[in-house]
Amino acid sequence: MTENTLLSVEDVVVDLPTPRGNLRAVDRVNLTVGAGQTLGVVGESGCGKTMLSRAILQLLPKKAKLSGRVMFDGQDLLQLAPEKLRKLRGRSLAVVFQDPMTSLNPVLTIGTQLIETLQEHLELDDATARKRSVELLAAVGIPAPEQRLAQYPHQLSGGMRQRVAIAIALSCEPKLLIADEPTTALDVTIQAQILDLLAREQRRRHMAMILITHDLGVVAGRTDEVAVMYAGRVVERAPTPALFKKMRMPYTEALLAALPRLDAAPHTPLPAISGRPPDPTRPLQGCSFSPRCRYAVARCQVEKPPLTAAGSREHQYACFHPIGIHAEAGA
Amino acid sequence: MLQTVQAASNEPLLAVDDLVVEYPVGAKIVHAVSGVSLQIARGETLGLVGESGCGKSTLGRAVLQLRRPTSGRVLFDGHDLTTMQGDALRQMRRRVQLIFQDPIASLNPRRKIGDIVAEPLVIAGVKDPQKREQLVHEVLSAVGLDPTLVVGRLPHEFSGGQCQRICIARALILNPEFIVCDEPVSALDVSIRAQILNLLEEMKGRFGLTLLFIAHDLAVVKAVSDRVAVMYLGRLCEVGPSEQLFARPAHPYTALLIEAIPVPDPDVRPTETVPVGEPPSPIAPPSGCRFRTRCPRADRRCSDEMPELRAVAPGQLVACHHPLI
């Protein structure tokens, strides 16, 4: 992984001041993404996955305090001048959000938005930018792309809008695309189409991608590596096949088990995770998952397990009682 | 006369008969529900699945007369709700309830939980405050909340999952027979979703409920339903016992919906056969079979002739000229 690492997130901490006190949204996260690789980031609401993506993009709320290092393509994004950063975003670092309406400007046509992006970053002339825009819309599967250029976002369906947002994100051939819940607002048949589109374009462009989602099903077949987040921390990280074959962290296991499955008989009670995630303004001394964990012992309540590797170097987890290796962990 | 769906028991609690719901948008007409017939037996859960805009929520509301249907009948325990007015309808409504998708938005942010849950009792004319308080405590305990900690607080102090428990408590307090659950877990996180699904199942057993469970997530629907109805653009495509329908779908749309679900297993390759395109507008639905514009099996007959629901297996009905079984 190290020889062609594109992005490395090192000890990133995001603190947000709230009326109830400091909220640590991201707690010492370390991640790397290699060129052309896909990293899936999985977690529930409030686990910090979106704040992490915003920390990478340097799009945090003004009041947020960020520390650590974000190395992208040889540059430390935290040290970069705002002007340079603006050039980088959209050009080699692109993003697709959950709700395409938040990233598209409602009062500008699709064409204006695409052409503007192309001209801003690639300095294309009008005719070339227009031609490229049509090609891009066609590439993301939008029928009658020429006519679409004159349309406004509200004239398109949710799925079509997300395709436009993807076209804009891809327009400058980014090296890394951050897709933050790109299909959560879409129907299941449209979701499959959009995920296929992202995978296809990624392969074609040899682009790296961070796919952020709450759905373990979405990352299973479509990522090289998965990081599971809980209460601001990465609690398990492994190559995708290894993670699904041998999950170590009880939270990951519980999250997968709680998913209703199509192959289960109707009326089978689901193994639900009791309770809910801790209040992020009142951090726990020990493991954040310990109050909900069925393997938790006294030590889990007083000491935070570090993210460590065991077995293989690539499989890391933050747990004193990992699944499958209880005997060694008890020592 | 459309064919009706045979329920497991011979005495259905709810029978929807050729229901049509249309409403004007400007000068045009949205065909939200077009001739849907189904029955739900007492104690049964019927799952209703479909994508956004297929009319599943409109159907749920039309059943409860929250939106008056354009035509058709809704028989609840033998009484036609569509012809009921005023007091008679209000009396009948005590026996039916609705749970919404967004639990936080369905609770008045300025009222205390105790008052919110007691409101149906006030409307139903339970005048004794002590009696009301006792019932509120009972129902809050039943949904897994501590009444003493909850009644005096406001909705914003609770998480989404807890708010949905409060909504369920409010729906249960009049001891209804029938509840329409409209996407009750789709706004919730995975770990909370399982808790609420289990709670609904438990409440169903404990209070002897009959449920119409509306959702877009097939796996969620399968987890709780005895039978499942698949809806596309205002019409039913297929109805059948859950296990059977998922094991051997007869309608191409059902099959594609099942295949489009991402499976949490990296060894399962995402399928290549997802339906192309997007659903057409319910303002101008396609002639004949409404799914034909996205269907790999569509031919001339599908555009000329509307397929009627017919039996392909015991209890399984499909509206397709070229069913898969």
Structural class of chain A: alpha/beta
Most residues in contact: chain pair: A-B, 48 and 48 residues
Cα(first) to Cα(last) distance of chain A is 32 Å
Beta-strand percent range of chain A: 15-25%
Order of helices and strands of chain A: EEEHEEHEHHHHHEHEHEEHHHEEH
CATH superfamily of the largest domain in chain A: P-loop containing nucleotide triphosphate hydrolases
Strand order of the largest sheet of chain B: 6-7-8-3-9-10-12-11
Note the overall shape of chain B.
globular
- CATH architectural category of the largest domain in chain A: 3-Layer(aba) Sandwich
CATH class of the largest domain in chain A: Alpha Beta
- CATH fold title of the largest domain in chain A: Rossmann fold
- Residue stretches of chain B low in confidence (pLDDT < 50, at least 5 long) are 1-9
Radius of gyration of chain A: 21 Å
- How is the main sheet of chain A built? 8 strands, mixed
Helix content of chain A: 25-40%
What does the average pLDDT of chain A come to?
90
Helix content of chain B: 25-40%
Sequence of secondary-structure elements of chain B: EEEHEEHEHHHHEHEHEEHHHEE
Report on the structure:
The complex is a heterodimer of chains A (331) and B (325). Chain A is an alpha/beta fold and 331 residues long. Chain A folds into 2 domains: 2-92 and 172-330, P-loop containing nucleotide triphosphate hydrolases (Rossmann fold), CATH 3.40.50; 107-168, no CATH class. Chain A has helices at 49-57, 82-88, 100-103, 110-122, 126-139, 145-148, 158-170, 188-205, 216-220, 240-245, 250-257, 298-302, 326-330; strands at residues 5-18, 21-34, 38-42, 65-72, 75-76, 93-96, 176-180, 208-213, 225-230, 233-239, 308-310, 312-317. In chain A, α4 crosses α5, α5 (126-139) packs across α7 (158-170) and α7 runs parallel beside α8 (188-205). The model of chain A is unreliable at 327-331 (pLDDT under 50). With 325 residues, chain B is of the alpha/beta class. An 8-stranded mixed sheet of chain B has the order 6-7-8-3-9-10-12-11, sandwiched between helices. Chain B has a 4-stranded antiparallel sheet with strand order 2-1-4-5, with helices on one face. In chain B, β9 and β10 (235-241) form a beta hairpin. The longest helix of chain B is centred in the middle third of the chain and has 18 residues, at 190-207. The radius of gyration of chain B is 20 Å and the shape is globular. The two termini of chain B are 25 Å apart. The model of chain B is unreliable at 1-9 (pLDDT under 50). The interface between A and B is large, with 48 and 48 residues.
